[in-house]
Amino acid sequence: MPSPVRVAIVGVGAVADYHHVPGIRIDPRAELVAICDPNEGLLQQRQTDWGPTKFVTDYEKIASDPDIDAVIIATPNFTHLPITIACLEGGKHVMCEKPLGLNFQEAARMFRAARDRNLRHMTAFTYRFAPSMRYLRHLLTSGSLGTPRHFRSQRFLDWPETSWGWRQYKETAGAGDLFDMTIHRIDFAHDLFGPIKSVCGAVAQFTPRDKTESGEACKPSEVDDWSALIGQFANGAVGVWEGSTVMKGHHNDGFGFEWAEINGSDGSAVYQLTDPNHILVGRSGGSMEKIAVPTKFLAPTGSPRDPQEGVPSTVFRYDLVWEFVSAIVEGRDAVPGFDDGALAQAVADAVLVSNDTRQWVDINADLG
């Protein structure tokens, strides 16, 4: 068996712990060899949580380390560009959390830097790997639902209204719910329907988030906690998206509420995050019925994950690492790549422009 892909993680917070480390652990082709974070206390804790490994506080040391093949970046949004560029210049394959950058220009630069060096690149759009989303894609592409006409997405979370830290300031996060949650739904709409050509969007803020969890005053939030858009796809279909982090009663053990629906000329189908191993399907003249996702769609072919084990709404996320490592081992593009991340970013940027100008905005997403 070839030597495992030597992976480093930059940013060792909850996302890395929840998604990426479990994915590395179950893939025999991958090995966690180094971790990086400016928080030395957290680095020490991860030595206990994840097992002893090389650890540093400076990402430049990760980028220049010849004993590292690939890097997973799970840091604040404003750091994605410099860390990614440094790692690519160091010859590393890179998977980066979304949003790729603070705007389309940053994301496109990251894509070009990876493409021009022939390095594997991936955007961590988790929900593409949900079994019901994979089966929904099959129903659409196979023609089972007829001509696609309409896409609908709702993503509601009931989160505390205390400070988000760096996530609530434009210079470090770019935007709030729009960049954090709705951008995922923009991506899988692209995956299902193709490019969005124009949008009309809006954002709003309902809570100031001017206190920390301990009750201390802090600088109020500058970003949205609700976002919505209407989109026109290049193929003639239309879509409606809405997301918010302050929807009371939609906690659901932290998973929130998610509904993504496709309406075609012959039928409709629905993906739900809280029940990702089932799908709702309805035909013309009938009603929506809940059916089990067929076994072959529960996990990608070759995934080391046992789809019968673990919490369904959690374990599909481990396939992010499987896809990233597979692309490296097989010498192919990872899906979704930085190009997908940049295209979703262009739409999200256009929503902010539409909100400010109160008009429809055409999507300009030339990756160069």
Describe this structure in words.
- It is a single chain.
- The protein is globular.
- The two termini are 38 Å apart.
- The mean pLDDT is 97.
- The chain contains eleven helices and 15 strands.
- With 368 residues, the protein is of the alpha/beta class.
- The longest helix has 20 residues, at 338-357.
- The strands form two sheets. The chain has a nine-stranded mixed beta sheet. A six-stranded parallel beta sheet has the order 3-2-1-4-5-6, with helices on both faces.
- Helix content is 33%, strand content 23%.
Kindly report the CATH topology of the largest domain. Answer: Dihydrodipicolinate Reductase, domain 2
Number of individual domains: 2
| Total beta-strand segments | 15
Query: How much helix, percentage-wise, in residues?
Result: 25-40%
Q: Give the percentage of residues in beta strands.
A: 15-25%
Pick out the low-confidence regions. none
Q: Name the CATH superfamily classification of the largest domain.
A: Dihydrodipicolinate Reductase, domain 2
Strands side by side in the biggest sheet: 14-13-12-11-7-10-9-8-15
The DSSP helix count reads: 11
- Using only CA atoms, what is the Rg? 20 Å
Distance between the termini: 38 Å
Kindly report the average pLDDT value.
97
Q: What is the makeup of the main sheet?
A: 9 strands, mixed
**What coarse outline follows from CA principal-axis ratios?**
globular
Please identify the structural class as seen in this structure. alpha/beta
